[in-house]
Amino acid sequence: MRLEPCLNGVPSLQLTMPKSIGLGLGPEFQGMMGLGFGTPQVSPITLAIALADNSTNLQPTFIKSIFAQNKTTPNVVSILLSRTDDLEATANSSFTIGEYLAGYEQVQTQPHLPLFIPENGLARWSVIMEGYSVNGKLGPLHSASPNVTNGTAIAVIDTGATLVQVPAEVSSTIYSPISDAFFSETLGQWVVPCTAEPSNVTFHFG
Question: What is the pTM of this model?
Fold first, then answer.
């Protein structure tokens, strides 16, 4: 994958893809463009591409190619996802490269959160979470990683996950205060009445 200048300085995107990468996404999917790191061990997707090409020397990622094309472009991306109510077909969301969303310009003056990649861990968008609170009360937090300070944990920032994966003690702290909520051993998850008042959860970073 690479960007090449074209007429009027507008870059063009040239994609090179193997014939089959075995993602199991179905015939309606013709490819995938993500914001992950460009190493085979990052995800099953990059590993499948490397195996299909019979090479661990992957081409620069989409986002890395854009930043390399124009050295003056700020190395930032912004993603704003909105929620929809039942039966709503569309939602307003935004994705920018090299600029901040209108109304969120002050983000650039905030302290930066460094990536935290555990020893022998995968290179992902992971940072240290300092704690969390439920309805104004700090919740218990323990990490299985030996390189993490007690009372903190490693959090992976991901916009594509359907479910939030947290330790059992964290999910219990979040859902147990909700009236008539219970943990189903059969489903392996919490069941919450649709009309229940949700917990107010705050995650602390930095």
Answer: 0.68
